[in-house]
Write a structure and sequence with these properties.
globular, alpha+beta, two-stranded antiparallel sheet, 266 residues
């Protein structure tokens, strides 16, 4: 699966950034709910391990999920319980190595095979795409805190597609009905290619950089902090609360609260 290699490359890009940072910065609070770089990497590593278990040890995966549910333990607390024995540098090294192993095993999996997960079963393709999305989204707080402007690649097209596919989910998780059909998207990829989704319409349209669309649907930026051109009431409503990840309704960050701390090049 191409998505497995995309996940690998996104992980390697984030690993290159983290490895270049002083270890002392790993425990500094980022703009995302006060999470530290250690929190981010621990979270990514734990759920990469759970994704790997989907293919190698599904009963072990179910066991972890049942433990969290029966003990009523918060997700981050459970992650720390499972991986807290690793110091920051050891954690980063293990995360990077295990992500490679996860990419390897998904690369040869049947994309349509159904795998167990916390919610309904999901396809292998959906699972590794979710790992790519989470790596990219949670990586944003590390880039922002480090003051580095990320140089994106066209592999973010997977996140654009996920954003499109979860148009209805944004409303379903809020027990709402979409106020109309999905707006037409005209997005410029990092390579300069133009990606379109939906049916052409001047009354409902979102146009701009694909990476900014990805930032909005992953809730790493408020729509007000992007240059996306949003036309129509449905488009404006969607962009005000878009959510491409699972779980209960989550509000986007307030305007001006998520930003790159200083201008620099990746």
């Amino acid at each position: 699966m191409e998505q497995a290699e995309d996940f690998r490359q996104e992980t390697r890009a984030l690993h290159a950034l983290v490895s270049a940072l002083p270890v002392s910065s790993y425990t500094e609070a980022t703009q995302f709910k006060g999470w530290t770089t250690v929190d981010v990497i621990r979270h990514l590593h734990f759920w990469n391990r759970m994704a790997h278990s989907q293919l190698t040890d599904p009963e072990g995966l179910v066991g972890h999920l049942k433990q969290m549910a029966t003990r009523g333990i918060a997700m981050r607390a459970y992650e720390a319980e499972q991986l807290g024995h690793l110091g920051p540098e050891a954690l980063v090294a293990e995360w990077a190595a295990f992500a490679d192993a996860t990419a390897d095993i998904f690369a040869t999996a049947d994309p349509k095979s159904r795998l167990k997960w916390a919610g309904p079963d999901m396809s292998a393709r959906s699972s590794i795409t979710a790992r790519l999305m989470e790596t990219w989204a949670h990586g944003q707080e590390v880039y922002d805190h480090a003051g580095v402007v990320r140089k994106n690649a066209d592999r973010i097209g997977n996140i654009v597609t996920l954003g499109v596919n979860t148009f209805g989910w944004t409303y379903a998780t809020r027990r709402e009905t979409p106020p109309g059909p999905m707006p037409y998207l005209v997005l410029t990829a990092p390579s300069g290619a133009v990606w379109t989704h939906g049916e052409p319409s001047d009354s409902g349209r979102i146009e701009g950089l694909a990476e900014e669309f990805c930032q909005v649907v992953t809730q790493t930026r408020n729509i007000a902090d992007t240059a996306l051109k949003v036309t129509g009431t449905v488009a404006m409503d969607w962009m005000s609360k878009a959510q491409c990840f699972a779980g209960p309704p989550n509000p986007p960050p307030a305007p001006g609260t998520r930003f790159t701390r200083k201008a620099a090049s990746a």
